[in-house]
């Protein structure tokens, strides 16, 4: 009997193969490498991430489905590949010296970062609900372990356990939602679901499935009321892992969220728009108000991350091409601002002294002007002060909401942005208007960390001043979904 093997378009899966191969190589190399050479594992991981990003750039413009249409290489997926590679690459650079300071073993750490990034890439390119779930679990399991990799700290154990238990429940909701959507449409492939919805509209079974999908995705993006895990997990995890989760995991969840809802379920947009409207308003408000009373900057940034998930959900509510493009633009902006802020946090910390309180930043602007200026840029951008990228991103999102007729949601977003300015500017006030004596290791001793802070600061300024090229790229990428 003749067996015909399916044709595999290797170029379409090359980014995933590069990440998986680098992760496996890091695991095996860790077995025999000497302790004093373990930093080489970081550079190996960074090289694999850079190659993946270059591969994604070279494949730009392709639109090819493989594995019976379950996985697609389109501009939308490639755009998110670049976001994931940026996040993972900056995380690895920040980790080169941080792992020594935090006394975290290198080998499995870098492999887990790469495997988590692999799951993100699969989520962004999947056109099948089962494959989206598979990518989500690959990413989630790796991040669960990363959250608890700080073995000598009980807070890290607590973070991992909370994230795992609540994440398992959220995955269950997502899987039940997939089952109900399959029952309502007869398929788990996004193309077939979109065709069925366009022809037959919604049904009670489909609406219940959509509600469960919102619960699953809402947990991953830390939207209210599914956000309870975020502050404790972000605070208890190693700072580099917190940065990776706050940016990478959120971007991956929104990549799948937008593909499923804005494209596949776009014909029934009116049926789920109201739910997301309420969730977006609650997420912005709860995140910002709770951040006002925090005394730990890491925990404040956790609630800030929740609030920014609300802004991103506003773009989801707005929908259409402008809303989708605004969502993708803001994810890049959010990544630059957040990675830079966490980079400064790592620079301020020392071995055994994380220096995460507001008081620890007192006088930083005078004792270390470069760090103070960089943190000022990130805080003002997160607050939405022009001409930085945070302002431009919020402008695009709120404009999309107004165009879609969601004027009151845009008003709530603007008011929340004003409220957020208090706790962001509070950091700046501490740096320049109070005296402090916190000892900080010279940044020049950690050149890779300096590169991260410098690159993100420059990106935060330039993308805000010259937004048109980035926005055009985001619009082009979102339109490739059609």
What is the gist of this entry?
The chain has helices at residues 14-32, 39-58, 75-102, 107-125, 129-147, 154-185, 190-200, 204-220, 229-236, 239-264, 269-291, 297-318, 320-348, 364-367, 369-383, 389-403, 407-433, 447-465, 468-479, and strands at residues 64-66, 71-73. The chain has 482 residues and is mainly alpha-helical.
Q: How would you describe this protein?
A:
Helix content is 76%, strand content 1%. Strands 1-2 form a two-stranded antiparallel sheet. It has helices spanning 14-32, 39-58, 75-102, 107-125, 129-147, 154-185, 190-200, 204-220, 229-236, 239-264, 269-291, 297-318, 320-348, 364-367, 369-383, 389-403, 407-433, 447-465, 468-479, and strands spanning 64-66, 71-73. The mean pLDDT is 89. The protein is built from 19 helices and 2 strands. Helix 2 (39-58) runs parallel beside helix 4 and helix 4 (107-125) packs antiparallel against helix 5 (129-147). It is mainly alpha-helical. Strand 1 (64-66) and strand 2 form a beta hairpin.
């Amino acid at each position: 009997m003749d067996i015909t093997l399916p044709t595999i378009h290797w170029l379409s899966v090359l980014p995933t193969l590069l990440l998986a191969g680098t992760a496996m190589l890091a695991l095996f190399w860790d077995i025999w490498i000497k302790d004093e050479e373990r930093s080489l594992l970081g550079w190996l991981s960074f090289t694999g991430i850079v190659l993946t990003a270059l591969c994604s750039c070279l494949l730009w413009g392709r639109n090819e489905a493989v594995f019976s249409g379950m996985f697609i290489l389109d501009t939308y997926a490639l755009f998110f590949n670049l976001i994931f590679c940026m996040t993972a690459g900056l995380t690895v650079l920040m980790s080169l010296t941080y792992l020594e300071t935090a006394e975290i073993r290198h080998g499995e750490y870098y492999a887990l970062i790469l495997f988590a990034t692999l799951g993100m890439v699969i989520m962004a390119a999947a056109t099948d609900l089962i494959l989206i779930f598979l990518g989500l679990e690959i990413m989630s399991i790796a991040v669960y372990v990363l959250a608890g990799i700080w073995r000598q700290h009980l807070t890290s154990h607590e973070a991992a356990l909370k994230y795992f238990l609540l994440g398992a429940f959220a995955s269950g909701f997502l899987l039940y939602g997939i089952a109900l959507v399959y029952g309502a449409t007869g398929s788990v492939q996004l193309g077939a679901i979109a065709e069925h919805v366009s022809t037959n509209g919604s049904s009670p079974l489909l609406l219940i499935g959509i509600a469960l999908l919102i619960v699953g995705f809402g947990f991953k993006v830390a939207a209210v009321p599914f956000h309870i895990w975020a502050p404790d997990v972000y605070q208890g995890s190693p700072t580099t892992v917190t940065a990776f989760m706050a940016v990478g995991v959120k971007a991956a969840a929104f990549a799948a969220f937008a593909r499923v809802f804005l494209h596949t379920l776009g014909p029934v947009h009116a049926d789920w728009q109201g739910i997301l409207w309420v969730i977006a308003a609650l997420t912005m408000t709860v995140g910002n108000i709770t951040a006002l009373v925090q005394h730990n900057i890491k925990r404040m940034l956790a609630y800030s991350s929740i609030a920014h998930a609300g802004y991103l959900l506003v773009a989801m509510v707005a929908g259409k091409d402008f809303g989708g493009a605004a969502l993708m633009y803001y994810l890049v902006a959010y990544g630059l601002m957040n990675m830079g802020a966490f980079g400064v946090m790592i620079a301020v910390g020392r071995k055994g002294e994380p220096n995460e309180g507001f008081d620890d930043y007192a006088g930083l602007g005078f004792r270390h002007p470069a760090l103070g200026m960089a943190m000022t840029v990130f805080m003002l951008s997160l607050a939405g002060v022009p001409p930085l990228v945070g302002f431009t991103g919020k402008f695009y999102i709120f404009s999309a909401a107004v165009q879609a007729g969601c004027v009151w949601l845009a008003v709530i977003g603007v008011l929340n942005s004003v409220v957020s300015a208090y706790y962001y500017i509070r950091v700046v006030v501490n740096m320049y208007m109070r005296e402090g004596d916190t000892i900080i290791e010279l940044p020049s001793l950690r050149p890779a960390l300096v590169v991260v802070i410098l690159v993100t600061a420059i990106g935060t300024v330039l993308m805000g001043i010259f937004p048109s090229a980035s926005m055009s790229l985001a619009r082009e990428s979102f339109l490739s979904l059609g």
